[in-house]
Amino acid sequence: MIPLKEAVLLGMYDAFEKWVEEDLACKKGCATCCTQNVVITAVEGELIHRFIREHEKREWFAAKFQKKAKTRRPELTTNGFAASCLEGNDVEPDSYGSGEPCPFLEKDCCSIYEVRPFSCRCFASTAVCRPGVPALIGETYLSASTAVMQIIEHLGQGEFLGNMLDVLLALCGVSENRKYYKLLPASMADQGLANVVKALPLPGFLLLEEDMEIVAPLLESIFSTKVGDRTIEDILNNK
Ligand code: SF4
Ligand code: SF4
Fold it and tell me: For a pocket test of ligand 1, which of 125, 133, 145 has the largest count of ligand atoms closer than 8 A to its C-beta?
């Protein structure tokens, strides 16, 4: 049985996938967007580590980190950014990854597809991206994805948040993953720990009134999803 937080995360992924109505250009084998600029929380990282352990992929996983580019510590998490905006500050969204290809990309397909994090699940475009032509997506879709990202951060509050590769490295310190330590280049797990910050609780959503008609059903669907005998809303509220 998977831990409660991971089950809640899977419930959110599922609700988001059912909500998406856009006619997207994203297809298997299209992967210009698969870079090392992906942000995750510890819960998302734990799901990936579980996949690595269950598929006996420890050596494979360690080898992936030979391709890790330089990353940095986030200055603001999504909820930190939202809190600052709600206080009326003029802030820019943060980026702490690299445009280098994601090491989990193999033959233009994601090798951890079933456990890929939310940043990868929501990144989409209505026209095929090409070098110099970035993803094209509506504002409401972006607001909805940001809202879901905020709920995911809330779920993992107090735990690691950062670049995907840094969070995965930092989680190598957890007892189930300790076997990876000796497979990784010395000091790499420490590098991960130095580059992660703590996830924050939800300060409120950054949703415009005009987005609500489309985004509210998604939020309702997430909050009313049952995990065991409780809804995600009750779990998030510790009821
Ligand atoms: S976001 Fe762009 S590069 Fe990524 S799958 Fe969609 S169309 Fe392809
Ligand atoms: S984890 Fe998978 S979907 Fe996400 S960037 Fe890497 S290869 Fe792409």
Answer: 125
Q: What does the DSSP assignment read for 89-130? A: ---PPP--S-SSBPTTEETTEETTGGG--HHHHH---SS--B
123 C-beta closer than 6 A to ligand 1: yes
- Nearest 5°: phi and psi at 150? -65, -40
Residue 83: band (very low, low, confident or very high) from pLDDT cuts 50, 70, 90: very high
For ligand 1, the distance from its centroid to the CA atom of residue 182, given in whole angstroms, is: 36
pTM confidence score: 0.95
Please report which ligand is nearest the Cα atom of 98.
Answer: 2
Task: Name residue 109's beta-bridge partners.
Answer: 106
pLDDT digits (tens, 9 = 90+) for 41-61: 999 999 999 999 999 999 999
Picking from 142-146, 178-182, 229-233, which range would have the lowest pLDDT averaged per residue?
Answer: 178-182
Is the CB of 30 within 6 Å of ligand 1? Answer: yes
CA distance 151 to 83: 13
